[in-house]
Specification:
Chain lengths: 294, 120
């Protein structure tokens, strides 16, 4: 037997249903023959909205016979063999129960018995549209670097604690080091910024141990954080960091850490968000866990 | 006469520190009188401050109606209190902000004044 979960929501429970053994066997065989369509759940990029179908193989013999993990994801944006993953996903979606589909609709369980065929079909179309949109939009950070990196959850209360908020800036936030020193790139390394431009600010950050986006960090430096550097020419620098929820967060100086830009929009792309006077987008960079900043 | 030193922070930056300067006793008293007059007027809706870029001048060490308060001057708004309990008033001719920036120019290196206030 197989449990299928549509990994879609951030707040409420995801729709899920079980697939009978006789149907599951055929689909698991197909997944096993197409391993490039499959990934471990932790390897699927985090994002808001649809992320993947998650499959839990409840009979370990079935996963073993097909060379599959007991829990895996398919039909996720960015998968090497996304089209095969979608083929299998469509067959799985056809087995979805009324109860699972009702989670797409603003209905209470009491109304389930009176769901009509039209509403079920609308729910299926809604799911298909969500998946199609997910295909069209690449996962955040996917074009920023080919190096592996990790995303931490957005945790504004840690940064906005009144005891610490005024002593930690964008660089503290980007490197995830709440030093209470209002740290500056290069200061710890004795190589501070001398010119407020992309080249020199990047140099100073690299002196601290930050890597350019194409210069990968080893696994021993997990979590490796993906950050973006921008410049207000001649005036200041600013950093963003990618979070597991799929958006970018930042902390403008002494002000609170937020995930919105100057227009109030959630930041999905630091290259195109409203950055006010920070007009120069410099580059993506990678922060090692062992970095020391001051 | 004010008992504490009054300081002004030009709140604009994210990475580098904001320029800060202290007011002379004479300037501090002039500022206190101006603010005391402004907060007697009708309060208005506070503005939405930008996250990145210039966010106003933060003044510390003044009294408002007998209590120590942090005051933010942003364009022609004078904002008393923090974001959860802020009251805003109008400085109709924007003279307060311009005056404070001029005082800052005398004490802060020119390259620390954001380009929006740079003299052409």
């Amino acid at each position: 037997m197989l449990r299928v979960t549509v990994d879609l929501y951030s707040g409420k429970a995801n729709p899920n249903w079980t697939v009978a053994a006789d149907v599951a066997r055929g689909l698991l065989r197909e997944a096993g023959l197409n391993r490039s369509a499959v990934a471990l759940p932790n390897d699927v990029p985090g994002r808001l909205g649809y992320r993947s179908l998650l499959l839990d193989v409840l009979d370990p013999r079935l996963s073993r016979d097909n060379g599959l993990p007991t829990r895996f994801a398919l039909a996720y944006p960015g998968a090497p063999n996304f089209s095969k993953g979608m083929e299998i996903a469509e067959k799985l979606l056809a087995t979805a129960t009324t109860t699972a589909l009702a989670t797409f609709l603003p209905l209470t369980p009491l109304l389930l018995p009176i769901l009509c065929r039209r509403q079920i079909e609308d729910a299926l179309r809604s799911l298909a549209r969500r998946i199609a949109r997910a295909i069209a939009s690449p996962a955040p950070g996917s074009s920023a670097t080919s190096c592996p990196f990790e995303r931490l959850p957005f945790n504004p209360s840690f940064w906005n604690d009144p005891a610490h908020i005024k002593d930690n800036n964008c660089y503290a936030y980007a490197t995830n080091k709440r030093t209470d020193t209002f740290p500056q790139p290069g200061r710890q390394a004795g190589a501070p910024i001398t010119t407020l431009d992309c080249a020199d600010t990047g140099r100073a950050a690299r002196a601290d141990g930050v890597h350019n986006g194409g210069d990968c960090l080893p696994d021993s430096e997990k979590p490796r954080l993906l950050v973006a550097l921008v410049i207000w020419p001649g005036n200041d620098y600013h950093w963003y960091r990618l979070h597991s929820e799929g958006f970018w967060g930042h902390k403008p100086g002494e002000t609170p850490a937020v995930n919105v830009d100057n227009s109030g929009a959630v930041i999905s792309n630091p290259e195109t968000c409203d950055r006010g006077p920070y007009t120069d987008f410099c580059r993506y960079m990678l922060v090692p866990n062992s970095i020391v900043v001051r | 006469m004010l008992a504490t030193i009054v300081t002004v922070i030009l709140d604009a930056f994210s990475g580098v520190t904001n320029p800060t300067w202290a007011l002379s006793e004479k300037d501090a008293n002039v500022l206190q009188d101006s603010v005391s007059r402004i907060v007697q007027t009708q309060s208005v809706e506070p503005p939405r401050l930008p996250g990145l870029g210039y966010r106003g001048l933060v003044i510390q060490g003044l009294d408002v109606q007998g209590k120590a308060a942090e005051i933010r001057v942003f364009r022609n708004w004078v904002i008393v209190g923090d974001t959860t309990d802020a009251r805003a008033f109008q400085d109709k001719d924007n003279s307060l902000e311009m005056w404070l920036v001029e005082l800052g120019r005398a004490q802060v290196p020119a390259n620390r004044i954001p380009d929006i206030f740079q003299k052409k």
